[in-house]
TrEMBL record:
Pfam family, one: Mur_ligase_M
UniProt keywords, alphabetically: ATP-binding, Cell cycle, Cell division, Cell shape, Cell wall biogenesis/degradation, Cytoplasm, Ligase, Nucleotide-binding, Peptidoglycan synthesis
Compartment list: Cytoplasm
Enzyme Commission number, as recorded: 6.3.2.9
Superkingdom, taxonomy of origin: Bacteria
Gene label: murD
Binding site for ATP: G110, S111, N112, G113, K114, T115, T116
Protein name: UDP-N-acetylmuramoylalanine--D-glutamate ligase
Job description of the protein: Cell wall formation. Catalyzes the addition of glutamate to the nucleotide precursor UDP-N-acetylmuramoyl-L-alanine (UMA).
GO cellular component, as recorded: cytoplasm
Length: 445
């Protein structure tokens, strides 16, 4: 008898799972409470997959042997609770895909930097001649790649929501970039729960696997003291010397793995700033584990183009630089952005607040920000936090309005920085849509 799978969510992960499930002979039912995008409907139709939208037919869902839920659906919704009570396994697409692939995985998670590190690892592997595929939380779903691509390695960006639904998934190399409060609305507003979720990436690792992590991150180090991991630990730090791992010495990155040492001046890195030094350390160690030549690693780090919507320089107009950092959906990401600003900055922020605390930003805002432009439906918290620090604080309700306002407020030599510190769902489809609208508005100035 063919196994039955119910798939909740008709986006990238849902449709990827459907394609893989079809290949593996499952009977499939895909259900989305909202509308499914046309491009995904076409794939479902072409592959003769049973689907529905704008409703959940419970009888069909509860008839399944296993349920894959999209990362956007919280564990707390009644249907998920009911499925688990009935003993029907509810898993993530990452977990499902891992059942049908023996290809080793480099899995990257963290509150910030994961897209940059994932893209950087893939860039180095490609330049080093490794046949690797990149996806997960960015680009193609893992399931879709397992269905279509024959690779020697998979490089996956993995969110905490995806890790919440794993059981056996085991990356050979796990990278944890950092842990700062984010998405706490999904974790009962408890940082502990969120940290535990991130550490699930190491859950099935053995002594043969590797765990690369930020040794300067208190949330990570204190968790490790209380919860040992089985894998071989490779910490990185810009504050202290590290025997086996990576550290900073006289502005050089020093990587030592199993007595093999390599160095690289930070001045050679394509991406500047302290956080990018750490991103380079993490990616450099993964590349060294795959025995990619040191010279290739150095060259790759020097010619990496960066990630769209992450401190992306858009245009200079009247000697004002416009920077798109729409991917900064939490306070910590914005902290890095402000820290890297060299000139006076007009800062555009706001959106859906995920329990933000802005205190850490106050000294940076004091030092670097001349004006704040709020771009969100509810800006009360931003006004309360920064109203007394900056001379100018204005509210806007569209990207065009925000960019026009920035154009008026910025003077020669200033930066205009879109770094929202919030999710985008009040005014935009997602952070990409927000970033593209920003670039469009800047080009129309």
């Amino acid at each position: 008898m063919a196994k039955k799978i119910a798939i909740l969510g008709g986006g990238e992960s849902g449709v990827g799972t459907a394609l893989l499930a079809k290949k593996e002979g499952y009977v499939i039912f895909l259900s989305d409470k909202g509308k499914i995008k046309q491009k995904y409907k076409d794939v479902l139709e072409n592959n003769e997959i049973d689907w529905e939208e704008e409703q959940h037919t419970k009888s069909k869902i509860f008839d399944a042997d296993v349920v894959m839920k999209s990362p956007g659906i919280p564990d707390s919704v009644p249907m998920i609770i009911e499925l688990r009570e009935k003993g029907i396994p509810v898993i993530s697409e990452i977990e499902f895909a891992s059942w049908f692939s023996d290809t080793p995985v480099i899995g990257i998670t963290g509150s910030n930097g994961k897209t940059t590190v994932t893209s950087l690892v893939q860039h180095v592997l490609k330049q080093g001649g490794v046949n690797s595929g990149m996806g997960g939380n960015i680009g193609n779903s893992f399931a879709k790649m397992v269905t279509e691509e024959d690779r020697d390695w998979f490089v996956l960006e993995i969110s905490s929501f995806q890790l919440d639904g794993i059981d056996r998934f085991r990356p050979h190399i796990a990278i944890l970039t950092n842990i700062t409060p984010d998405h706490l609305d999904r974790y009962d507003y408890k940082l502990e729960n969120y940290i535990e979720s991130k550490f699930r990436i190491t859950r099935n690792q053995t002594e043969e696997d590797y765990f690369i992590y930020d040794a300067d991150d208190k949330n990570i180090t204190s968790w490790l003291e209380r919860h040992p991991v089985k894998s071989q630990k490779l910490p990185f730090s810009i504050e202290k010397k590290i025997e086996n791992g990576a550290y900073l010495e006289n502005e050089n990155i020093v990587i030592t793995i199993n007595n093999t040492k390599s160095t690289m001046p930070t001045s050679d890195l394509a991406l500047q700033g302290k956080h990018n030094t750490k991103n380079a350390m993490a990616a450099g160690m993964a590349a060294q584990l795959l025995r990619i030549r040191k010279q290739t690693i150095r060259e790759s780090m020097a010619n990496f183009q960066g990630v769209e919507h992450r401190l992306e320089k858009v245009l200079k107009i009247n000697n004002v630089l416009y920077i798109n950092d729409s991917k900064a959906t939490n306070v910590n990401a914005t902290y890095y952005a402000l820290e890297s600003m060299e000139s006076e900055t007009v800062w555009i922020l706001g959106g859906v607040d995920k329990g933000n605390v802005y205190d850490d930003l106050l000294p940076l805002v004091n030092e670097k920000v001349k004006a704040i432009i709020c771009l969100g439906v509810d800006n009360e918290k931003i006004k309360a936090s920064f109203g007394n620090i900056v001379e100018t604080l204005v509210e806007t309700t569209s990207m065009n309005e925000a960019v026009q306002m920035a154009y008026r407020l910025a003077e020669k030599g200033d930066n205009v920085l879109l770094s929202p510190a919030c999710a985008s769902f009040d005014l935009f489809e997602n952070y990409e849509d927000r970033g593209r609208q920003f670039k469009e508005a800047v080009r129309n100035l």
